[in-house]
Amino acid sequence: MRKIILIAFITLIGCNKSIGHGNIQKEKQIFVCPPCGESYDSITYEKEGICPYCDMKLIPKTSLGTKKNANKKDLTICFYLQDNVELLDFAGPMEVFTAAGFKVFTVSKTKDRITSQGVLTIIPEYSIQDAPKSDVMVFFGGSHSTPTNDPAVISWIKSRKKNTDYFISVCTGAFIMGKAGILDNLTATTFHSQIEALQKALPTTKVLPNVRFVDNGNVITTAGISAGIDGALHFVAKIKGEEFAKKIAKIIEYDKWIPEQGLIVNKK
């Protein structure tokens, strides 16, 4: 009799569990547009598809909380600009980074006016004496030898290495980072006509031609001029995801970005 009661009790528990499982409904997945600070970022969708506002592919809302640095909109980026800096070297990445929601500020050795290609007058926001800390430092071509051969500037760059997360160079800005020891034992690229010169200047660095950018993890170098846009978009993808970077490329109407044309040595 006891055996019969025990069997009946176990059977009853099993039935209750089955009924309970049957009542559990799968949580409905919600989709959103990759965020970029626009008003439609908060709109949710019940199905996968394309955002009707910006034509980007919708992503699961749950991915926003897990994607590395997805909401880090307060990333600060320091642009070091020297006199005669190449205009597109810095203007292209500046367009990308500001569109991505990053805060960009400019620094030069002093706050004196400088010119870009003898045409554009620039007043740096800071000098190397009062520049605030930043998450990222970026260096550009155009009279790169001026900061490269300036002990005060190189010393300042070295002093910021410990508290800077990422270093990026565009074009011959690689010479500046190289002089500060940032490219030691890494792989890099630069303006096509300066590949051999950079290799000679940095014997421990592997300098590559025919590549739009090289990513060593926290140090990125790009080829010349317009390649800075590619490198900047790659950095945005690194921080906020490739879908978000594609959205930025669409916003600035840059259809030349082909991520595969860059080399990723280290994904960190």
Automatic annotation (TrEMBL):
Gene3D superfamilies: 3.40.50.880
GO molecular function (one): metal ion binding
Alphabetical list of PROSITE patterns matching this protein: PROKAR_LIPOPROTEIN (PS51257)
Residues annotated as signal peptide: none
GO terms under biological process: regulation of DNA-templated transcription
InterPro entries registered for this protein in UniProt: Class_I_gatase-like, DJ-1/PfpI, HMBD, INH-QAR
Superkingdom to which the source organism belongs: Bacteria
Domain named Heavy metal binding: residues: 31-61
Boundaries of every DJ-1/PfpI domain copy: 77-236
Name of one Pfam family that matches: DJ-1_PfpI
Name by which UniProt lists this protein: DJ-1/PfpI family protein
Source organism: Flavobacterium soyangense
Taxonomic placement: Bacteria, Pseudomonadati, Bacteroidota, Flavobacteriia, Flavobacteriales
